[in-house]
Amino acid sequence: MSGTLVLVRHGQSEWNLKNLFTGWRDVDLTEQGRAEAKDAGERLKAKGLSFDIAFTSDLQRAQKTSQSILDVLGQSSLETIRQQALNERDYGDLSGLNKDDARQKWGEEQVHVWRRSYDVPPPGGESLRDTGARVWPYYIHTIQPYVLSGKTVLVAAHGNSLRALIMALEGLTGEQIVKTELNTGVPIIYRLNADSTVASKEILEA
């Protein structure tokens, strides 16, 4: 076995709570989201994990989740790399809209296609495949080398940027990954083999 990769979707954000499409909008965590991030840290601490390096997106909800986890682990000053490639999927014209209002404007079926298809982007935005096109190269060239050298790596990011990563790690199809639900603040621990394949996976549910 090689190293350990821990993926965490940020805690609940203010726009998750309001049922709005968020995407690249830089909204904060709710009180519940801050608690979820702290709880994630406690669960990782109970597993005896500590990190060698952390990666997060350009958006504060992911950054604050990462920092809360590291604070709980007593690793507040750990090197943390912020990278736009790990940002949430860009929802384009849907950003900032209430999901119910979007359904009224474009229809239930069309909004469902934009939200849950693999390769159909919303107007002015990204599909999950588009999101993967920026996540995968960054993972392969920058994050994966740390894991394969035996390091323990934290990635705190977003539902869709993490879906793209999980798709690559587990060899899932587009159809499979769009059905994959990721709860906020729940760490997923992957232990990788030296050839980058997954040796084991553990989800630390609350």
Number of strands: 6
Widest beta sheet: strand line-up: 3-2-4-1-5-6
Helical segment tally?
8
Q: So, the CATH homologous superfamily?
A: Phosphoglycerate mutase-like
Shape: globular
What CATH calls the topology is Rossmann fold
Question: N- to C-terminal separation?
Answer: 27 Å
Number of domains: 1
Overall pLDDT level: 96
CATH domain class: Alpha Beta
SS strand fraction: 5-15%
* CATH architecture field: 3-Layer(aba) Sandwich
Cα-atom radius of gyration = 16 Å
Query: Helix coverage percent of residues?
Result: 40-55%
The residue ranges in which pLDDT falls below 50 over 5 or more consecutive positions are: none
Largest sheet: 6 strands, mixed
Structural class: alpha/beta
Summarize the helix and strand pattern as letters. Answer: EHHEHEHHHEHHEE
InterPro entries: His_Pase_superF_clade-1, His_PPase_superfam, PG/BPGM_mutase_AS, Phosphogly_mut1
Family: Belongs to the phosphoglycerate mutase family. BPG-dependent PGAM subfamily.
Keywords: Gluconeogenesis, Glycolysis, Isomerase
Binding site for substrate: 9-16, 22-23, 61, 88-91, 99, 115-116, 159-160
Write a short abstract of this structure.
The record marks 158 as: Transition state stabilizer. The protein has 206 residues and is an alpha/beta fold.
